[in-house]
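User: Predict the structure for this protein chain, please.
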Amino acid sequence: MSTGPSSNIRKADGLFMNIAQPGSPPVLPKKGEKNTLITSALPYVNNVPHLGNIIGSTLSADVFARYSRTQNKPTIYICGTDEYGTATETKALDEGITPRELCDKFSALHAEIYKWFNISFDYFGRTSTEKQTEIVQDIYLNVRKNGLLLQKSADMTYCEGCSRFLADRYVEGTCPDCGYDDARGDQCDSCTRTFASPIELLKPRCKRDSKHTLVVRPSSHMYMRLDELQPRLEAWIKSAREKGEWDGNVVVNAKGEIIEARMKGGLRPSPITRDLTWGVAVPETGDAEEDAAMNGKVMYVWFDAPIGYLSLTAQYTDDWEQWWKNPKDVNLYQFMGKDNVYFHTVAFPATLLADGRDWTMLHRISSTEYLNYESGKFSKSRNVGVFGNNARDTNVPPDVWRYYLISNRPETGDSVFAWKEFVSKNNTELKNNLGNFVNRIIKFVAAKFDSVVPGPSSLAGGPLAPTDAPNAVDEVFISDINARLNTYIKSMDHTQFRSGLFELMAISARGNQYIQDNKLDNALLASDPERAAQVILMTINLIYALGPLVHPFMPVTADSICKQLNAPLRALPEAFSIDILPGHKLNQAEHLFKEIKEEKIDEWRKRYGGESSTPDAATPVLSKNQAAKKAKAEAAAALASLPRTPEVLALEAQIKTQGDKVTGLKKEKKEGGEAELASEVGELKKLKADLEALGRALKGMSL
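Assistant: Here is the predicted structure, written as structure tokens:
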């Protein structure tokens, strides 16, 4: 953004974030730099994404893409709708339209929803393109040339009522592993097991008509030789896990041990063709017998869809191979729900290895568990849960939705969307913490200094170390901020976004505490104007530093902060820095967030609760023991978020000393010691209450 005539911002290479303007040429990797290629799992085109879908892939990937751009790394984020396969055919059949008409309808709907959420794709496209066909068929022929395809006849499910072979998603039945009754022919949504063939299901039935008779008949298909690829695949997985510092997942644990059942038991040849019409046709090879056997068949969606990442990049730029055939200079980050991990760590890498060319392969995988709605699952048919278009209808800004979803991201276990928590986070964390900190200082400078930042005109600015501080209070402040920035960067590098968001809000809370420590008000301005100017300069620059930290999570909020500061978006700092200098003119203060009224909770719960719209649906029922553990964990988390001020540290030390004393008295069990123990326990409770009160004060202060 441009700044006004009274701008006074430090000049330094790389200080500002490079922001691509409309019409800019495609971003390409630069030799020797940390080039970042990001994909999110391609959303199925046959549905409307709900909040769980959005946080599981597209929003999580967007947070990382924006974070990478705040470091001015060459970065692209590629995604698009997954349009081929059985799911599309069956949905089109249900709606009485062609697969192409269905894709046209839902692809536009997906694009509209992601635009509203401010998902910053460099390219969002579709897989039902000529480019997709070209690249998929090229890779197929290369795998065949390398001797890693096997043609064989296998028993397949044939529906006598439909007079056709049924591809995986046309068949439903009972999962042989977990007993789930509505498992699909390709995968069980309950336990995430995948099936090589629908005949593995128990009690299979035709999706079109459960009364149809299913029989087993032979059909010829092509299989990829995963058995021959397994040694290379395992070596790659272990190497990639170590280089990319993967978290444990369903394929490989945190120790680097392969735990996926099929790999442990030995991979088998896997079919990559299907008896469908809507898909990438199996290409002719010149072998008359083989071509006759494959005539009318298409590629299996899990062979076809991941190659969509390549074809979508090719639609973004003709120089797509600079991204995808450049493993030395490009790091590939892929985001998805846990049910897609196998396909991105086994199936897709196996395809690239089988192809044999020097592809850019997965550097780091980031997967999530499931986000549930209140006490149940999202269900479009039962009107349960918030879907992408519903979020817009609430008139709550996209940034608030983004913040809540990231703060509730199911990183290590399933999480639950709850309206009460949603409203609370907006009103307390966003409005009272971050919003209050930014607003109070900019308004104070406007009222007392006509919006001009005070201080000596000779100040050059630049990064600060604790030893640069003029006093002990500022020394602790700078030390705290630099430590928080370091933790933020480590968390974000490892795609631990909840931790990164926590550090952002802790830095904001530390800014509020700094104002309180220094008692910035009219009295300080009158008694010590030089110190007042120092405090203002420090806090204005902390707000400026918050811009790039806020940007990945809440891009519109980051833009508002910069607008109020009359400054362009800063690149991510590694240390606290004085960049906005004395004499700089700020713009008018604006509120970053608005309060959401409590009564909206019941209104939204009724609107989106479907069959679960009872008051009890808001919170899962917990036993007394579970409730106590939850309350204790929430209290511990709240205390952990406090800025490390001298007062906090002193109280924590007193609590530890008193706690040790109480523990010692309990162990002694001396006769007549009950009164003494009760007294000491009372003192311990008082200290803990004092710490909680201090915490509330740090989070809710105003000038």
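The two ends are 29 Å apart (CA to CA).
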